[in-house]
Amino acid sequence: MRILLTGGTGFLGAYLLPLLECHQVLLLGRGEGDFPCQNVSYHRCDLSDIGTWEKQVRDFHPDVAIHLAWTGLPDYSFPRCLENFNSSINLVSLLASTGCKTIFMAGTCWEYGDISGQVKETDIPGPMSLFPSFKTGLRLITENLVRECEANLIWGRVFFVYGPGQRETSLIPTCYRAIKKGVFPEIKNLGAVNDFIHISDVVDAIKALVETPRVSGVFNLGFGAPGKVRQICEYVARKLNAESIIPDWKNPIQQSGFWADRSLIKEKTGWEPKLSLQEGIEQTIDEWEEANDRS
Question: 31, 59, 61, 24: which is closest to 45 by C-alpha?
Answer without folding.
Answer: 31
